[in-house]
Design a protein that fits this description.
TIM Barrel; 8-stranded parallel beta barrel; 10 helices; about 35% helix; globular; binds 1,3-dihydroxyacetonephosphate
Length: about 250
């Protein structure tokens, strides 16, 4: 079995104005260029407002662009929404879908997320599908593995293309809290995620996200079952983000 190439993804959420956001893109690009050739993939997912300008900055560099969400339709009367194809137009290769902040604050169901996964893959994007248990679900006595596997199965369209799928295990209680499962627990959930796909799972990259920072990333990256990171707040600083990225090498 060939080793899966690791992947580090920056999820900037709703942070980054035009000037500050583009400075951050350029700072990260500079670090990636200096580290060529890279033996891992780097994806930045800025707010949609930055995508067009950022695409010029990353062109011809090892850094790739991603989006944070999309609509299920290719076009239509959907005020305020953006289709997956619109992001491919701007040079995006990846898209985050099913993030807990959208499942929570926007009430996105597994069914809706499955439709988005299908739409994004049809548009040619590789989907970074987020799954993770809440603290309340854990308190009810279910195992993280069972919760996550159930959520994952329900969030996948029937015709999912595993070659264009990445799964990010993001325990909801670990996002932005400074708390995390142990590296052992992360590895065992990641392994269960991979096993959900049977043989096809061997090529699916399974990331970890939730309070990842330069100090804790090394111990998590030491686990073979972790194929990289989905980083929130620590990705808003070029030095910090790159220090985490280097653990993927
Ligand atoms: P933090 O790294 O800020 O905990 O956020 C994780 C996350 O939600 C990435 O998608």
């Amino acid at each position: 079995m060939a080793k899966r190439r690791r992947l580090i993804v920056a999820n900037w959420k709703m942070y980054g104005r035009l000037t500050s956001g583009l400075v951050l893109v350029r700072d990260i690009v500079e670090k990636a260029e200096a580290a060529r050739p890279l033996n891992f993939d780097v994806v930045l997912c800025p707010p949609a407002t930055l995508t067009w300008a950022a695409s010029e900055s990353v062109m011809g560099t090892p850094v790739m662009l991603g989006a944070q969400d999309c609509h299920t339709a290719t076009h239509g009367a959907y005020t305020g929404d953006i289709s997956a194809a619109m992001f491919t137009d701007l040079g995006c290769r990846y898209i985050i879908l099913g993030h807990s902040e959208r499942r929570g604050a926007h009430g996105e169901s597994n069914e809706l997320i499955a439709q988005k996964v299908e739409a994004a893959q049809l548009a040619g994007l590789t989907v970074i599908l987020c799954v993770g248990e809440t603290a309340a679900e854990l308190e009810s006595g279910a195992s993280a593995t069972d919760i996550v596997q159930k959520q994952l199965r329900a969030s996948l369209p029937k015709n999912v293309k595993t070659a264009h799928l990445v799964v990010a295990y993001e325990p909801v209680w670990a996002i932005g809290t400074g708390q995390q499962p142990s590296p052992e627990d992360i590895a065992s959930v990641n392994k269960a995620i991979r096993q959900t796909f049977g043989e096809a799972g061997e090529t699916v990259r399974v990331l970890y996200g939730g309070s990842v920072n330069p100090s804790n990333a090394g111990a998590i990256a030491a686990r073979d079952e972790v194929d990289g990171f989905l980083v929130g707040s620590a990705s808003l600083n070029a030095d910090g983000f790159w220090a985490i990225a280097e653990k993927c090498g």
